Amino acid sequence: METSWVLGLRIQDIDGFSDSCRARFSEVFLSVMAERLSMLGGRLVSLRQEKNVGMV
User: Fold this and answer.
1) Is residue 32 part of a domain?
2) How many helices (H) and strands (E) does the chain have?
3) What pTM was computed for the model?
4) How many domains does the chain have?
5) In terms of residue numbers, what domain contains 20?
6) Own/partner pairs for 11-20, CB < 8 Å, 24+ apart?
7) For residue 35, is it within any domain?
8) How far apart are CA 56 and CA 5, in angstroms?
9) Contact of 25 with 14, CB cutoff 8 Å
10) Around 37, how many Cα atoms within 13 Å sit in the side-chain half-sphere?
11) Tens-digit pLDDT profile for residues 12-46
12) Buried-state track 21-54, b at ≥16 Cβ within 10 A, e below 16
């Protein structure tokens, strides 16, 4: 378990950001999403190997 944070933003909130702030937000958001997808992929591969299930 790890500490988590939740931040709720409406699209209107993001639209109110300056261009540079929106660009930075998008950069960080996409980086976090890519990292999490990569971790998920690794976990799925590990589970597949543990269960010895082949790909279809």
Assistant:
1) yes
2) 2, 0
3) 0.61
4) 1
5) 13-51
6) none
7) yes
8) 37
9) yes
10) 6
11) 998 999 999 999 999 999 999 999 999 998 888 88
12) eeeeeeeeeeeeeeeeeeeeeeeeeeeeeeeeee
Residue 21 · residue 29 · CB < 8 Å: no
Amino acid at 10: R
Written as one letter, the residue type at 12 is Q
d(CA 18, CA 32): 21
Total Cβ atoms within 10 A of residue 14: 13
| Residue entry with tokens 């933003």 | 9
Residue 5 belongs to a domain: no
Residue 3 lies in a domain: no
